[in-house]
Structure formats: structure tokens, C-alpha cells
Amino acid sequence: MKQKNIHSPALSRITVSDPLFKHYISIVSKKLIPYQWNVLNDSEPNTEKSFCIANFRVAAGEIEGSHKGMVFSDTDLYKWLETLAYCLDRGEATEFEVHADEMVDLISRAQEPDGYINTYFSVNCPERKWTNFTEGHELYSAGHLIEAAVAYYHATGKKRLLEVASRFANLICDKFAPGRELENACPGHQEIELALIKLADCTGEKKYADLARHFLEVRGNSSNFLEENLREQGKNRIFPEFADYDALYAQSHLPATEQTTAEGHAVRAMYMFSAMADIARTYGEDAMAESCVRLWNNVTQKRMYITGGIGSSGHLERFTVDYDLPNDRMYCESCASVGLMMFGQRMAALTGDANYYDAVERALCNTVLAGIAAEGDKYFYVNPLEVWPENCLPGTSMSHVKPVRQPWFACACCPANIARTLASLGQYIYAQDEKSVYINQYISSELCTDIRGAEISIKLQSNFLADGTSRILIKSDKPQSFTLRIRIPYYLENPTFIFNGKAIAPVIENGYAVIAVSREGEQILEINSKVEPRWVAANSKVRADTGKIALMYGPYVYCFEEEDNGPNLPVFYAAGSSRAVSDAPAAGLPGSLPTFKVHGRRLDSGIGESLYGQPSFRFTDAELKAVPYALWCNRTPGEMIVWINALIS
Amino acid sequence: MKQKNIHSPALSRITVSDPLFKHYISIVSKKLIPYQWNVLNDSEPNTEKSFCIANFRVAAGEIEGSHKGMVFSDTDLYKWLETLAYCLDRGEATEFEVHADEMVDLISRAQEPDGYINTYFSVNCPERKWTNFTEGHELYSAGHLIEAAVAYYHATGKKRLLEVASRFANLICDKFAPGRELENACPGHQEIELALIKLADCTGEKKYADLARHFLEVRGNSSNFLEENLREQGKNRIFPEFADYDALYAQSHLPATEQTTAEGHAVRAMYMFSAMADIARTYGEDAMAESCVRLWNNVTQKRMYITGGIGSSGHLERFTVDYDLPNDRMYCESCASVGLMMFGQRMAALTGDANYYDAVERALCNTVLAGIAAEGDKYFYVNPLEVWPENCLPGTSMSHVKPVRQPWFACACCPANIARTLASLGQYIYAQDEKSVYINQYISSELCTDIRGAEISIKLQSNFLADGTSRILIKSDKPQSFTLRIRIPYYLENPTFIFNGKAIAPVIENGYAVIAVSREGEQILEINSKVEPRWVAANSKVRADTGKIALMYGPYVYCFEEEDNGPNLPVFYAAGSSRAVSDAPAAGLPGSLPTFKVHGRRLDSGIGESLYGQPSFRFTDAELKAVPYALWCNRTPGEMIVWINALIS
User: Fold this and answer.
1) pLDDT tens digit string along B462-490?
2) How large is the average pLDDT for residues B518-542?
């Protein structure tokens, strides 16, 4: 496989203007950053306690106490710092930089002389450092520290946190590199691998990428390393639910290059596959690249919900088998869809193929957006496609499904993961290499960047969902030639192109329309297409969706809520040929996505109040209303359904 | 409510001749009794170890060691003894009576001087006796000892085990009766209540029934007794899954007379409701009787599967909410359906109403029979209505569902519960009171009994499912008048009656056709009806069954297996008007129930190999074959489905 050098432009040079995403990006800096700051400080009422900053203070010896909260609670602060860095990059939330600097100082004071940082182990059980790889999350937490440090350095130019993280990374290299004491250990939760690659890119220190590669290579070589490590913990076990632990859970069942299906905990899988794609690109490793393609195809062609959700088992938040996509009891963790975006972005960087961005867009526009309230203060951890609030009962098989977003979680990965994704959204819209600028998402925005010595700006005005057109204004200060590669997604019907007033028929290469630009000054590319609401069916092997259809508009999946359609949504039917009529956006929801009216039917089994009886099926007409799944549960909480029954004649 | 005195005739006087049930009754004595005997002795290869008899030997001080296995493992021996007693009652498995007597001696040697018996607490932690009501199962285990003792006494006339059980029951009365030390305690798993009533009936000692009544009355008075008791265990907790414990779980959330919905663990609920019905009948307690009716109606009209399965949550094996009846992930424990049979039998005894036997028959002919292999050596614990073997994966939300019957279980309640039910099946077929004999099931059999001083025999030849007729031969040695009450179930269409050659139109009272008998000698009642295979739909509020139909024949639910229909069963459709054509019984399956051929269709969503795409639904014709659910998974293991999609025009 030919190596590509596709990377993201600096976030500071991307401005998003799309009304829906601008809303969410803005609530990250205006609401989430202050809200999460309060949570980290345990000063937010009505949320589960975080203990996060208090734990650092205890570890720094500044207050007395023990570590409280989850074993990986340090990452809440790291992800907050990373998110804040992306906001600062764009000139937002600047009033928090002073707090961030205080936190950087605090983290450095909590760092042990040898570079070690982890408040759980430092405070509660220093004698058990580097012993519990399966549950301890030391390397996972280190990874998030590194990601935060790299982001904070890029945003502020301040090196303090990068130095702290590098010292820790150096210690990790000393412990885990080939030939060292822990050379056979692999992390119980992948994350450090992709972080080390970022650190190598940022510092130019190749040893960090080498260690990432080593972590991937050592994994699954001894297929039961993590299982044996778990058994060795004896009475020091941390997670009771790991009674069901198996080698698949953390993808340690086979070497990375031999894995063919996405198995185990979905977030762990996505973080690992992302790092694999990075390593394949960095080292030009074909076997790793081929494994990435196989795993990507398995996920997106056999194990992914229409919403870009992944993880079909509610228990242990994991993959199950091909085509097993139950709509109400699955996990579909918000973090897993963030991870799918990360994996897809890296696959596109590895291959230069736009098609990887289809699933990135699917995850972003549906599960990731749905994971956060329009007001920014509540979150979904689990993202079902069908919710019946009454049966989401504690102490049952459905207890993991929350019918309304929650203000916080003891395990607070999802809010922070959504926040850092939205705060850095530009990285998913634009990319560039030596001679091309890539437009990967139709999210209205502007990019300024240098290419081949020219300073250019690209302004994307995407109106596909309003009037079927998009305009791209290109400005260059020099007559330097470069190519603009514009992703043409599957839902654009027969797009036509007008470049500087003239119809053109650009080459479509790897899913990108390739436009050669060589003039200086302003140029305009217009794309005209038609985006119609469309009904979608699932593969016949997806048992949960047999005879069902879902409504999509562009990349957006629509759903039916109780507020608009009344209760007992599973009794609704619509014909796959029925027209979805565009209507005004739902009042009070952000952005300008239309709602749709659908002429459907409601089924009655005709047996009255009995539980079972002779069928006498009767349809009655019903006007249904669909809203974007991304925005569900932002009005009156209630039932929701994505897949409705198809009327099949 | 008027008190009834309806009771079961002696099992020794009932002989079952129905080919299906005779088969299962016979494998209990010929296979289960020896098989379970080997299991109890840990001499059966390829099964999980029971440790049961070894624990008694340790408790009796005869071998060294600690208690191993489940905390309630003593009940495996008690249920084996109870089952064997029912076999001995009918003159079967007599070669095991000598082993039973040895076991009775062993139990008596394991009994402590004050009467206490429980090998777990005696051996492992005598200091914690009577402290852990929520998890300890001491009273539950005592209940099964008592049931075994009563049955063994009835079968053999031997008093030794009854004395042992009575001594333990006396100790329990001394500890738990009003005014005693533990008067506020209630059992964490109901069972002792109904056992104490049996003991009172057997011994004439009213104090045992009084204590049963007290246990029901104290329950839920302090709604958090069991929860607090669980918290008090601290590090001595037994069941990790009780992290999710709540007051609903063991029905201690409200006083028994104030409960209106079936909540919590389904087996606990059924055992409790059974005891409530007994107490309502024994003491003529109207408030208790009314609560029983409400709870029965809630279960059977809103929370019961078409197969008589109950317990919609796989996690914690419990009830959820009305109409929540998912077909693949539920629990539907075999024991819970045995419990439903017990509850229904007692409701019929309380009210004299035959309609309670509809659900008893539903549970028996479907879930209970399905719980045991035709060969008698394997068992289902969980009884789903839709099985896709590939997704029944360990470590996932579906891990509790086993796609094939298992040879044994560490928690071995179900095999033993099915065995004792089948071994005592006669109690569900016949009942009698001072002036009536009741026929409650159309299971061909013969009863000999005394009524009003006359010795009568009743021979039931039920051929409804073969030719629409049943014959009942009545013989009496005296011209004594009595009434024969014959249940007329909902699936008999327009039954007509010929009594001694003359057409009659008997009064139908409480679901029974009432026939006055007054002659001596032989008399014949013929019932002619039509039983056609029929499609059944569920209430429109049962979301899991929207637009679906199931095939029934008499009380038998039918299902579609992969062996006959190929894989991916959820794509099959059939019209509710389509005729199910009777065919020969499936080769190698017991009994003579027909199979059915149905003209159906197979749906393809028309999107090829993609995961999602534009629907192009296409039907192709398919000849489907249905087999009784009771007999599923007795040929080649594979997929199974009960509810298939209805073609609705």
C-alpha cells in the first residue's frame, strides 16, 4: 500500500458556520467547559460526584484522603483539558485558560519523581502499580494525558503539560519497550497507542511511535495475557462485571494482523483499530493496513447500526456477531461512535479514500449528536434506536438503557468524548496533503491554510438539504496549482459541477471529485444535486429489521417520537413508496433540519383487551411525523423508534 | 368468598395413559431418578458437580471438608426425594427406595440437636445461621425438605423424614412465630410458606399453617427488611448479582394483600402467590383471595408468554412491566412455569373455577415440557420463543439463553422442578371435593377414588386432537350421586355431549360442564367438538408481537425450527387466514401430536449484500413446517421461532 501523508489542518484555521454544528460547537465552549469544570470540582449540584480534581490534590499531597471514584477518573480532567485546548485553538472559552494552567500545575505536582502519574494507584495502592493491566487503566489514563498535552501545546504553545506527559511517556518506554521488564504486557484498555503516535508527531520522537507499534504487536501474541493477569489479582479485583472476562473483550484473542472481525468492547476495539491505521500509515505496514481494511469492513458492513452506533450487547458494551443488531437492548455507546469516527478518519488518511467518511458522517450526524442534549447539559451513554421508557427498569436486562439523557455519569467518558469531538470538528471536515485539500463533510465552514507555499482559503456553503446546491469559494494568494478533492457521498443523486461558471465533469477518484486549481484570486465551484428523503431497509440477515424501513435525509437518520405520534410506536406502518413531505423544523430544536410528515397506518391486532386471541388485523390511517434522530429527546421525553414496519404488498 | 374444599386425589390412584405424557412420566422414573441420583453423588460424567450428598456427609461429620456448590444445594436432594416419592406412589422406581431411606438417615444425621438442617451454614459458617435472610435460603431449603417429607410419607407411610422435617419446622416456629426473636423476618426466597401448609395438612398441626400465614403477613410490612438485611451482610455477601437488589425482587415492597402487579423474581412470586391462595382458602381470608385474583389476572392477562412462560427480564429472572414480552432475551425459567401451574391449581381449588386451568395447561403443555429433552437427560432453564444460536454468546446480554438443553446446572432447580411436576402430574388432571370429581386436563388417564362412600373409577380417553372426541367411562360400585365437573377449555369449539347414548346439554358452571351421576355400574360420557389448528395474535400493546401470529393446536403452541425451514426464520411470513395442514408427527419425537404444513412466504429486503440500502421487498413462496414447541430442539439443534410475521392485506 502506498503511503499517504494526509493530515488535518490546524483547528485554529477552521471556522464552522453550519447552524446545527455551530450550535453544538458553541455549547461546548459556553456550557460544557464551565459545566464540566464544576463537575470536576464537585461543585455541580444534582450530578454524581466526580472526585477528579480532589484526587489530584490528594496525590499531590495537598489534602488528606483516599482516591475516590472510578479507577480511570483522572481522564475526566485530561479530556476536559483536551476539549478546552480545541476551544482555545478557535479563540473560545479563553477565560478558562487560567484554570487549565492551574490544572497543569496540579498534574505536575501529582507526578511522581520517576514521571508516574495516576492518582488511583499513587494514593490508594502504590504497591500495585503496573500490576493490573486488565483493569487498572494506567496506560489508558496515560494516553488521555498525552492527548491533552499535545492538544494544549498546539493550542497555547505552552510546553509544561507536554513535558509532564513526555516524562510519563519516557517512563512507559523504559518499562514496556522490547527488552524491558514489562515487554510482554499489553494495555487492558487501548488508548495509549494512538496517543503515543500523536506524541511522536508532535515531538518528533520516533520512540513513542515505536512503543505504540510494540503495544499493537505484543497484543494477542500470548492470547491469555490479560485473562491471566486478571486471575492474578485475586481479591484486588476492581470490576465485578469482569466475572465474564474473555480474551475477545479487549481484542487480545489474536495478533492485530490476524483479526478479521470486530470483537469485544466496542470502544477498546475502535481505539485499537485507530492506532493500527496510524501504525500502518506511519510505518507503511501492509499487513496492518490489510487487517484495518478487513476490520473496518466487518464493522461497517455487518455490525453497525444505521445510526453509526456499534456494540450490540448491552452487557459488557461489546460486539456480538454479524448482523446481530437488536434495536432496544444494545449498547451503542456514544464513545464507540466517536471511536468509529476516529478509525474512519485514519482509514481515509491511510488510503486517500473518501468512502471511509460515509460511516464517520453517519456516526457524527446521528449517534454522536444524539449523545448530547441541545442544551449541552445532559448526555446519553447508550444510544438505542427504539425506546419504551416504561421497560427501562433498574435491575433488569434493560437497566443500561436510559430513556432520557443523564446529567453526568460516575463513568464519565461519554460527555467528555462528545465534547472533544465537537470542539475539534474541523479535523473531520478538512484534510490536506502535499498537493491536495480534502473536503470530507458537507458542513458549512471556512478553512485557511497553506499549500505548496500559497495561502488559500476555502469557504464551503452547503445547502444540499435545503435546495440541493453547495458552493465552494476558493481564494489563493498565488497562482499555485493544487487539487481540491471533494467527497461525493452516496446520497447525492447525479451531482453536476459548475466551476467558475462553466459546467465541468470532474474525475471521481476514491470517492472524491478532483478539481484542479491553479489560478490566484477567487474561484467558485458549484455542485448541484438532489437530496430527497429516502426510505432505507436493512440486509435480510438483520433479523431485528425484517420487514422494516427507516427514513433518512442525507446523512441524517430520522425517528418517530411519542410527542408527535402518540404512544406504542411499534404498531406504525408505512409503505416504502410513501412520500415523506418536508415540514418546518421542530420548534425549539437547533439547526434547520426539516421534519417530515409521512402518511402511515396504525395496526390493531383486533383481539381487544385479551392478551392472546384470534387475529383480526385492522389498519387505520395515521399521519406520522419524523424528526432527526440527532435531536430526539429534546422536547417531551417519551417513546422513540427509528425502524417502522413496512407495508409490503 | 365461600370456602372450597377442593383437593387432589392420591397419586397412587391415578394412571396416565396419554402417549406424550406417559412418555415423560416414564422417563422421570426410568431416567431422571437414576441420572439425578448419579448427579447428587457426583458420579455423572460431563455435568457440573453437585456436591449435594457430599455436603450432607460433611455436615453429618462423616467426611472432612467444607460445603461446596450453591448455598441452597441441599434442595437438590430434597426435590429428588420428593420426585422419587411420587414415582413410588405409582409403583415406579421402587429400586431407589433403599437409597432414599439411606438419604433420609443421612439427612437425620446432618440435623443438629435443635432440629436445624442446612449443610451450608452448619459446615461453613454456623455463626451466621438465621442472619442472612435475603441470600441464605435457609427457609427456602427447609420448605423443600418439608415438601419431600410430606410426599415421602404419603408414598411410603414411613415417618422418619416427616419427623426430621417436623423437628426443623418446630424450630422455625420457635424462632419466627409472632412474639419470637425473629418475628419480623421474612424469607428471601418464598417456598416455606406453601410447604408449611402441606405439613399442617399432613400432620393436622395448625401451628404450621399459622406460621405460613405469619410469613405472608410480615412480608412487606417493613418494605426494606430484606434490603437492610442484605446491606448488613457486608463482606459476607453471597450473590454478586444482588448488587441490583430491590424490594420488588422478592415481593417485599408491599404487604401481600396490597400487591396488584406481579413483580420481581418470577419463581419467588409464584411460590408466594401459591401460598397466598392456600392461606386464603385455609383461613377464608377474603382480602388475601382478592389479592390472589388481582395478581393472577395481572400475570395471565398482561405478563405471560403464549407458552405460559413468565419473567421478561433475563437479568435477575424477573417480571418487568405489562405487555413487555420480548421473545429472545427473556428468562421464562422452567421453574417459574412450574410455579404458575402451582398457583393456578390453588386458585382453582380456592374458587372452583376451571378457567384457572387454562394457564396451568398452557404452562404444562409448552414451557414445562419444553424444559426437558425427550430423552430426559438435558434441560432448559431459560425458555425463549425465538432462538438464534449464533448470538447466544457468553459475556453478552444473551449469555443466559442456551440454544440447546444442558446436561445439568450448578443451580439445579429446573430439572428437579420439572421432574417433580411430571412425576405428580395426576394432581393437575383430577381434583375432588365432598360431592364432585373435577377433570381439569384432557390427558388420557384413569382415576380411582372414593366419593360419598362410593368407590368410583373414571377413565378419560381424550382424542380431541386426533378426531375431536373424548370419552369418559365412569364406574361406581354404589348408586351414590355425585357430580362430574369437566373443564371445557376455550379451544373446544361448540362441544356437544352424549351421556349414556343420549344427547344432553349440561350446565356450564365456572368453566365446568356439570354432569350429575347417580347410577351404579358403567356409564359413558362422550364429548364431541372440533379442534382446529388456529393462528393467534397478541394484544396490540405487546410490542414484540406487532403484526405477528403464532400457530396453536389445542393447548399446544407450535414453532418453526431451522431443521424443517432453513435458517433466518424471522424472514418468514404467513397469512392469518392460511390453513395449517396436519401432517405426520415428526420422526423420533414422543407422543402423537401432528406437525403442520403452512404455505408461507420468505421476505428479501432486496438490497443484496449491503448492510443498508433502498428497499425492494420481494416475497418468495415457502412451505413452512411447524412442530410442537414442547418438543423443539429434540432433533438437529438450530434456530427456532414461535411468532412469525403475518401477511396483512
Assistant:
1) 999 999 999 999 999 999 899 999 999 99
2) 95
Beta carbons of B611 and A302 less than 8 Å apart? yes
CA atoms in the 13 A half-sphere facing the CB of A604: 10
d(CA A611, CA B539): 5
Please name the residues in contact with B608: beta carbons below 8 A apart, sequence gap of 6 or more: none
- Tell me the C-alpha distance between B194 and B215, whole Å: 10
Using a CB-CB cut-off of 8 Å, the residues of chain A touching B568 are 540-541, 543
b/e sequence B477-486, b meaning 16+ C-beta within 10 Å: eeebebbbbb
CB-CB under 8 Å, B243 with A603? no
Confirm or reject contact between B587 and chain A (CB < 8 A).
no
pLDDT at residue A223 is higher than 80: no
Interatomic CA distance for residues A343 and B632, integer angstroms:
44
- Report residue A237 as a C-alpha cell: 479485583
Distances (CA, A) of A624 to A25, A545, A561, A564, B200: 31, 19, 9, 7, 61
Check residue A240 and give its pLDDT. 84
Task: Tell me whether residues B388 and A543 touch, CB distance under 8 A.
Answer: yes
Average pLDDT of chain A to the nearest whole number: 96
Answer whether A430 touches B (CB < 8 Å): no
Residue with cell 495502592: A125
Q: Indicate the angle between helix axes B33-40 and B74-89, nearest 10 degrees.
A: 160
Output b/e per residue, B199-233; b: 16+ Cβ within 10 A: bbebbebeebbbbbbbbbbbbbeeeebbbebbeeb
Hey, what's the cell of B520? 351404579
Q: Would the CB atoms of B611 and A539 count as touching at under 8 Å?
A: yes
d(CA A116, CA A171): 7
Please give the DSSP secondary-structure letter assigned to residue A96.
G
The predicted-structure confidence for A124-156, as pLDDT tens digits, reads as follows 999 999 999 999 999 999 999 999 999 999 999
**In degrees, to the nearest 5, what angle opens at C-alpha B505 toward C-alphas B500 and B509?**
115
Distance CA B592, CA B583 (A): 11
Which residue in A332, A413, A414, A633 is the catalytic one? A413
Answer yes or no: is pLDDT of B412 > 80.
no
For the stretch B238-263, pLDDT in tens is 998 898 899 999 999 999 999 999 99
**More confident of the two residues A413 and B38:** B38
ipTM over 0.95: yes
Q: Reply yes or no on whether B317 is catalytic.
A: yes
Q: Is B413 a catalytic residue?
A: yes
E strand or H helix at A349, and its extent? helix A334-351
Contact assessment for residue B407 and residue B378, using Cβ atoms and an 8 Å cutoff: yes
At B83, the amino acid letter reads T
As a whole number, mean pLDDT of residues A27-53 equals 92
Q: Is the CB of residue A249 less than 8 Å away from at least one CB of chain B? A: yes
Average pLDDT of chain B, as a whole number = 96
Mean pLDDT for the stretch of residues B561-568: 98
On whether the CB atoms of residues A58 and A64 are closer than 8 A, the answer is yes
pLDDT tens string B598-642: 999 999 999 999 999 999 999 999 999 999 999 999 999 999 999
Instruction: Please indicate whether, in this complex, the C-beta atoms of B611 and A304 are within 8 angstroms of each other.
Output: yes
SS3 track for A194-246: HHHHHHHHHHCCHHHHHHHHHHHHHCCCCCCHHHHHHHHCHHHCCCHHHHHCC
Side-chain-side CA neighbours of B337 within 13 Å: the count stands at 37
Closest-CA residue in chain B for A248? B395
Q: Where does the pLDDT of residue B1 fall: very low under 50, low under 70, confident under 90, or very high at 90 and above? A: low
Pairing of strands B644-647, B572-575: parallel
* Side-chain-facing half-sphere of B574: CA atoms under 13 Å: 29
**Overall average pLDDT of the A216-226 stretch:** 89
